[in-house]
Amino acid sequence: MTDQDASSHGQPPSWARRAVALCIDWALASAVSAGFFAFEPSATLAVFVLMRVLLTATLGSSFGQRVLAVGVRRLDGRVPSVLQALGRTLALCLIVPVGVTDRRDGRGLHEVWAGTVLVRLDAARTASRS
After folding, report:
1. In sequence order, which residues have a C-beta less than 8 Å from that of residue 38 and are 6 or more positions away?
2. Whole-angstrom Cα distance, residue 94 to residue 100?
3. DSSP-assigned beta bridge partners for residue 71
4. Half-sphere exposure of residue 68, counting CA atoms within 13 Å on the CB side?
5. Do 97 and 110 form a contact (C-beta atoms < 8 A)?
6. What integer pLDDT is reported at residue 129 of this predicted model?
7. Are 44 and 60 in contact (CB under 8 A)?
8. In this structure, are residues 82 and 53 in contact, taking their beta carbons and an 8 Å threshold?
9. Average pLDDT rounded to a whole number, residues 110-130
10. Strand ranges (E), the chain
11. What is the spatial distance between Cα 106 and Cα 59, in angstroms, rounded to a whole number?
């Protein structure tokens, strides 16, 4: 897996798209936590992690990412494994790796560590129709 493999996935989603998707996922996790766990902060985090890992490993994107046409893929183009989704999500929860990027492909450290890349699903659909 090289940097060239990651850059072959086309134009990455904008940081705004990524941030809004994250906010949607956090709001959904907060709503579940408020409804079932009295909005306990650790429960909110647990719901967020569980939701992101399960959806990323099965569908290739979380709810917020899907709404904004963003997907997570392995460098070979497949949906991430459960371990990759878990590693990526736990690193995302550390916050620091997300903003640390000095790479031409625009991936944050959490994506590099997990061997994943964010892709624009709308661009992938358009390319497959051509």
Report:
1. none
2. 11
3. 119
4. 21
5. yes
6. 59
7. no
8. yes
9. 79
10. 70-74, 116-120
11. 23
Token reading at 8? 């072959």
Taking only the tens place, the pLDDT of each residue in 73-103 is 999 999 999 999 999 999 999 876 677 776 6
Q: What is the CA radius of gyration of the chain?
A: 15
Q: For residue 106, report the phi and psi dihedrals to the nearest 5 degrees.
A: 75, 10
- Dihedral angle, C-alpha 29, 31, 32, 35, nearest 10 °: 160
| 121 backbone dihedrals φ, ψ, rounded to 5° | -70, -35
Q: What is the value of pTM for the model shown?
A: 0.85
Supply 52's token pair: 């992101």
Give 70's contacts (C-beta < 8 A, 6+ positions apart).
13, 17, 18, 21, 61, 118, 119, 120, 121
* Per-residue pLDDT tens over the stretch 104-118: 787 888 888 899 999
Tokens matching residue 95? 């916050």
- What is the C-alpha to C-alpha distance for residues 114 and 37, in angstroms, rounded to an integer? 30
